[in-house]
Amino acid sequence: MKVPYSWLREFIAVDLPADELADRLTMVGLEVEEVVRFGDELRDMRVGQIKTREKHPNADKLTLCTVSDGERDLQVVCGATNHQAGDKVALAYPGQRFLSLKTGEETKLTRAKIRGVESEAMMCSEVEVGLGEQASGIMILPPETPVGASFVEAMGLADAVFDIAVMPNRPDVASVIGVAREVAALLDLPMHDPDCSVEELGDRPTEQWAKIEIADADLCARYVGRVIDGVTIAPSPLWVRQRLMKVGVRAISNIVDVTNLVMMELGQPLHAFDYRRIAKGHIIVRRARAGEKMTTLDGQERVLDDQMLLITDPNGPIALAGVMGGANTEIEPDTTTILLESAWFEPGCIRRTSRRLGLPSESSYRFERGVDPQLQAKAAARAAKLMVELGGGRVMPGALDVVAKQAAPRRVKVRTPRVNLVLGTALSQGEVETMLKRMQLPVVESRQNETVVENPSYRVDLDREIDYIEELARLYGYDHIPTPVSSTKIVAHETSIGERLESATRNVLTGFGFYEIINCNLISDKTASAVGELFFDTPVQPVRVLQAKSADLVNLRATLLTGMLETLARNHRQRRPDLELFEIGQVHLPGDGGRPVERAMLSLGLSGRCDDEGWDVRPPEVDFFDLKGTIEGHLKALGVETVTFTASSNRLLMPGQCASVSVEGTVLGLCGRLSSAAAQAFELDAAAYVAEFDLEALASVAQFKGRYEPLPVYPGTRRDVALVVPEATPYEAVRQAIDSVEVPILRDYRLFDLYRGEQVGGGRKSLALAFEYRSDMGTLTDKQVEKAHAQIKKALIDHLECEIRES
After folding, report:
1. Strand 515-516 and strand 579-589: pairing?
2. pLDDT at position 483, please?
């Protein structure tokens, strides 16, 4: 909410420096995010007066003027025709920067020759200074404007604008008057309301002009209508456009601008209809019908559902209640009669409508949070008064005020002993009552140690005694509330298995050179469909978010690989192909009874080259074995010595380079190379390797016990074996055969060569393995090594269809 200081001062006589007031407001819970110095960018501009106006010597449509800025005469070339000698104008000099309201682009004024004649300055239109969107000519200032004065100061543009973060439970401060109430309470100053008296000079009462019918009282509790006849549509005066510009609202016309002005001033959204376009002057407030359509003011046709509220006439929709008006009743240049709407709509209905249609507005912003249900008649009177002042015409006698549902006033008892107990203060009942009255919270009864307060209708956040105690704390000052010495014992937090696992995983993978990524847990329908069809064996219906904040992000992810693949693709598009990434996060899968199941997962992603290019070495591309080695290294760091990789199949991964990862029968996850179908779906034009693991399964096999192994004292010895096996025999079968026999002096073994060729025959392959033997008891003898080596060879022959060749 943007609140100009000058507007605030109309209701309360406050003279604090803007920055100090911003700090004071922030300390009582109204966070001022920024104080914008409005008009600073135009401070170099001056008020000039045209002394002479002549035809440009080289152009028929240009004029050549001599303009005085109070100190010197300047030669100015101008393309407008609405000026004459003696006019006061806004004068800008070379170097002045202008910001376009339409495009947001900034331009800089430079010294230039126009058709051979040098122009030393520029006479500005309202477009350049941000007071309009169309420029039919330059801006002519009032005759009394002093020549040479600062344009910003002379026109009242200089101001401090408070940009206040409005919390969802404080809709009352989404208005200038709401902030004024806070300032009055904070500084203990008197304030006054805006003038809402309206002179009704019409010839016929409003009830003869219009009829209002509320069909759905649960969504519209009150609807006030007023008729103003004989208005003239024209641009608003400068002071109105200035105010709207400062709060970030575009000026349109005098009648529409009044509705916006009153909304920002009082917090009550209003809407002005062209009366002649409302069939029989009959307003009907009802739910939309499923599939019903209407075209809103932005020219878009909207398809509605039966949870949305409409303003209609007997012929159909004329406005989307609380969100946006309809194009068929828009105020036009020839409009002469206005039907003014001021209503209270149910916040949840407006919130759903705005979200589902992706159509936020200043009106929906306020209705969603809840407007004052007693403000409608007052706001309508204020707007009718201003419309007559700015557009002429007459206000018809009386207002149509249809109340479908009346809220009962709420009363709450505030106990002084309870206030002091909660806050740790020693306030008297008199002090409590004084502070309540400063906040304009009416005291209706005062008893011993107890004050009965009737809650104002605009404070929707106050309901219980504790709410009022919080209000007293704000006004009293948090810095004045004593802080007792705590006797609470601090108990050390016992780290859970899951926390230890996540911490260890981060340490290990970052040590391997991986970068952690954090992706949004919401995905689009397109992404959910692509992964669902490729990754899961059976189609998985994603868990859908009911109140999504974005039209694209509507589903909870069922796998971390969606974000991983999007991140890989995004980096490749930015020419950053060498990636080693991991993510730890939650996924959601459909569960029994409609309740989603949440799981903690770990994903890995590799692509590009495994190292930086050197002087004369080009590192190889990463492959499946880089991913496999990472997984083995990670699990080994978690105390898992033996990992099983079993060939598997998954449409997301490439056949032959896809494996299920398990430890002693516990399946941890899946790893492999991305399939061409998946790469195409995610627009990834390079090889990528990914893996995903269930952290709960990983925690069940992880060992967090510290291990210590002394450095070897005695030398070891090596024996090699060449093993010829059928082509289909996986290395995992060889490993299982070796591990099936217990050989205490066998310290390690590894595969170091793979051979296919004529020497081993077709359909067979040779695997070369190196075995390391060592003892901690002494130097091994050849006899001890040969005996152990023979045990291993026998195990290989017993478990595999193989031929052993010693080397």
Report:
1. parallel
2. 78
Measured distance CA(520)–CA(504) in Å, rounded = 23
Phi, psi of 288 (to 5 degrees): -75, 155
Residue 612 pLDDT: 65
- 735, amino acid identity: R
| Strand partners for 666 | 663
Neighbours of 169 (CB within 10 A): 13
Amino acid at the residue 450: E
Q: Do the strands 803-806 and 764-773 form a parallel or antiparallel pair, or are they unpaired?
A: unpaired
473 phi and psi angles, rounded to 5 deg? -65, -40
Judge whether 418 and 459 are in contact, CB under 8 Å: no
List strands edge to edge, sheet with 443-447: 411-415, 450-454, 443-447
| Residue 134, pLDDT score | 60
Quote the tokens at residue 777. 């008891």
Q: What is the pLDDT of residue 133?
A: 63
Beta carbons of 242 and 6 less than 8 angstroms apart: no
Instruction: Name the more confident of 600 and 617.
Output: 600
The angle subtended at Cα 479 by Cα 473 and Cα 481, nearest 5°, is 55
Residue 135 is predicted with a pLDDT of 63
Kind and range of the H or E element at 104? none
- Residue 594 C-alpha from the chain's centroid: 28
pLDDT value at residue 17: 93
621 CB contacts (<8 Å, ≥6 apart)?
Answer: 608, 609, 610, 687
The structure tokens 């009965």 sit at 452
pLDDT, position 617: 63
Neighbours of 666 (CB within 10 A): 13
The letter for the amino acid at 404 is: A
Task: State percent of the chain over pLDDT 90.
Answer: 59
Q: Which residues of 573-603 are buried (b: 16+ CB within 10 A; e: fewer)?
A: eeeebbbbbbbbbebbbeeeeeeeeebbbbb
Let me know: does 660 contact 600? Beta carbons within 8 Å.
no
| pLDDT value for 485 | 62
Question: What tens digit of pLDDT does each residue of 553-575 get?
Answer: 888 888 899 899 999 999 998 88
Closest CA to 483 of 417, 425, 418: 425
The DSSP annotation for 694-738 comes to EHHHHHHH--------PPP-S--EEEEEEEEEETT--HHHHHHHH
What angle (nearest 5°) sits at the alpha carbon of residue 503, between those of residues 498 and 507? 145
The maximal CA–CA distance of the chain, rounded, in angstroms, is 123
What's the pLDDT at 222? Answer: 95
How far apart, in Å, are the Cα atoms of 329 and each of 278, 412, 652?
A: 7, 44, 54
**Are the beta carbons of 354 and 361 closer than 8 angstroms?**
yes
Nearest to 380 by CA among 200, 542, 524: 200
**Is 70 exceeded by the pLDDT of residue 697?**
yes
How many CA atoms does the CB half-sphere of 22 hold within 13 Å?
Answer: 19
3-state percent breakdown (helix, strand, coil) of the chain, nearest 5: 30, 30, 40
What letter would DSSP give residue 801? S
Name residues whose C-beta falls within 8 Å of residue 20's C-beta, 6 or more positions apart in sequence: none
**Cα→Cα distances 197→202, 371, 384, Å:** 15, 21, 9
